[in-house]
Amino acid sequence: MNRATPESEFEMLFEDEDTHPHSPPPNGAEAKQQGGLGEWNAGDDDWNIPPRGWLLKNIFCRGFVSSLLADGGTGKTAMRVAQLMSLAIGRPLTGEYVFQRCRVLILSFEDGRDELRRRVRAAMLHHGVTNADFDGWLFLAALSRQHGKLMETDGKGHLKEGTLAATIKGVIARRGIDIVCFDPFVKTHGVEENSNSAMDAVIQVLSDMTADYDIAVDIPHHTAKGASDPGNANRGRGASAVKDGGRLVYTLSPMSVEEAQTFGLSEDKRRQLVRMDSAKVNLTPPMTMAKWFRLVDVPLGNPSTLYPNGDNVQTVEPWTPPDTWAGLNNDLLNRILTEIAAGLPDGNRYSDGPNATDRAAWRVVQQHAPAKTEGQSREIIKTWVKTGLLVHRGYENPATRKTAQGLFVDDAKRPE
Predict the structure, then answer these.
(1) How many CB atoms lie within 10 A of CB 16?
(2) DSSP letters along 12-36, please?
(3) Is 347 helix (H, G, I), strand (E, B) or coil?
(4) Residues 6+ apart with CB under 8 A from 148
(5) Each residue of 227-274: pLDDT tens digit?
């Protein structure tokens, strides 16, 4: 082996482990090699169709490209490291169901070797994972310019597949890899990211990879500048071909000030929480509610004389909203608020008073969410009053013609 080439240096990262030959390419790839289309007579089809190859809940699936869109510093890499480690050890570190244990390859195009090791180590320490738990199942590589790109342009500006693609394919086949994560996507190619034709060519390389080797591919991606918009697949930077090529696209967004107020959380706690929303899930219905995670700083315990405190590195853990708010999505909350805003049929307004009976606002919560107790329903109204979503105002009692106090909704603070 010629160790002077970037490709062989990349292969050296894996040459000391046992090899796991992967299953042969599917019929389509074989037909392509033979010059055919892989067409078949539907009349001869026995319709014994295998189920989709889900790996981690509805996040990763064999034969498809997935992505996680997020602003820098949101916890995108920490999230993916924890999710991919879940597959490598066969245990749901992020609370998402593991369909099968997988051999995972994480390719870091942004962090160096030691920083990638720190990220993995933080997740290991926080979740109680040992080296033995993923020995032979988790493979890491920190790539640089010398390893090449998936797609490049030649001297005349024409697109061509880069040398990196062939190198990765070799590792996939030799290691028996089930899922490859390219983090971040923008660093994997050397073509114009705002060109749909160029981005489509890059995505095609990855799509072919999923089909030819029956694997999942993940491409965490940065978002364009602007306000965070949970669940918006169009937030990804560059050409829309990236979004269009991915089949399982999610967004990761910080908890908003309004959401923290709804949950009754302090500003310090808010900054630790992020939400993951389905942005473009072509294969399954989108999530009706966000999945929440807490960002956790983990001390690595690696002090030195120069740095006696060592490093603190971020990982994630599942977070569940307080029981009072569990199961309440924005649509349901807005229906409750709309009824409160309309007032009672006789023209009176709802009240949060402790002795209110027919005018008690908590009863509206319980009508729409019958699983909530009276105490939980009262706590929701109390939180909304505290945050200013519900405000006290005077109104004329239609029966007595006297001024009374009732609840009104500040529409500007409604959940979005």
Answers:
(1) 6
(2) HTTTTSPP-PPPPPPHHHHHHHTTS
(3) coil
(4) 6, 7, 162, 163, 164, 167
(5) 556 656 555 555 465 656 667 889 899 988 877 877 778 899 999 999
Q: What are phi and psi of 77, to 5 degrees?
A: -70, -40
The dihedral through the CA atoms of 53, 58, 64, 65 has a sign that is negative
Backbone dihedral region of 294: left (phi > 0), alpha (psi from -120 to 50 degrees) or beta? beta
- b/e sequence 362-398, b meaning 16+ C-beta within 10 Å: bbbbbeebeebeeebbbbbbbbbeebebbeeeeeeee
Query: Dihedral of the CA atoms 114, 79, 219, 148 (nearest 10)?
Result: 0
Please check whether the domain covering 6-33+52-321 is classified as CATH 3.40.50.300: yes
3-state secondary structure of 327: coil
Beta carbons of 315 and 81 less than 8 angstroms apart? yes
Say how far apart CA 259 and CA 254 lie, in whole Å.
Answer: 10
Q: Which residues 6+ apart lie within 8 Å of 364 measured at CB?
A: 336, 339, 340, 350
Peptide bond into 299 cis (omega under 30): no
Are 280 and 317 contacting, i.e. CB atoms less than 8 angstroms apart? no
Whole-angstrom distance, CA of residue 377 vs CA of residue 364:
8
Cα dihedral 293, 299, 301, 306, rounded to 10, equals 140
Listed by start position, the domains of the chain span 6-33+52-321, 330-413
Q: How big is the CA angle at 94 (ends 234 and 91), to the nearest 5 degrees?
A: 130
4-23 confidence digits (pLDDT tens)? 444 444 445 544 444 444 44
- Distance (Å, whole) CA 237 – CA 219: 13
Under a CB-based contact definition with an 8 Å cutoff, are residues 237 and 264 in contact? no
